[in-house]
Amino acid sequence: MLNSFWWGNSSEPRKGIKWATWEKLCVRKDKGGMGFQNLHLFNLAMLGKIGWKCFSNPNAQISKIFKAKYYPQGNFLNATLGHSPSYASRSVCSSQDIVGRGLRWRI
């Protein structure tokens, strides 16, 4: 619905007005954009929250479920996808890099 409003119906390529690029729509309002969220980055942030919870709180129910099913011998950061991963596990594992880059060691 959002797509057809801003860029017209894809079945009729010449119909509709090309209002703006997605990058322009995602710019903050105070910078002249519409303030829409970049949905890909927003999705990665939410998946990163789940990944962080799995890593930092191993006693949480979601952590126990993921550990038992997807990485029984390791932890979240060094887990690898199996031969037929579910959509949920692929999604959460896509945030491993983000969670790993956000870690800091303390002495």
Task: Outline the structure in words.
The chain is mainly alpha-helical. Helices cover 50% and strands 0% of the residues. It contains six helices and no strands. Helix 3 packs across helix 4 (61-70). The N and C termini lie far apart (51 Å).
The average pLDDT is 76
Shape: elongated
Reading the helices and strands in chain order gives HHHHHH
Individual helix count: 6
Helix-and-strand structural type: mainly alpha
Q: Gyration radius, to the nearest Å?
A: 19 Å
Proportion of residues in extended strands: under 5%
Query: How is the biggest beta sheet arranged?
Result: none
Question: How many strands?
Answer: 0
What is the quaternary state of this protein? single chain
Helix percent reads 40-55%
Key features?
mainly alpha; 50% helix; single chain; 6 helices; 107 residues
Provide a quick synopsis of the model:
The chain is mostly helical.
Could you give the topology of this structure?
Elements: H1 2-7, H2 22-26, H3 39-56, H4 61-70, H5 87-93, H6 96-102
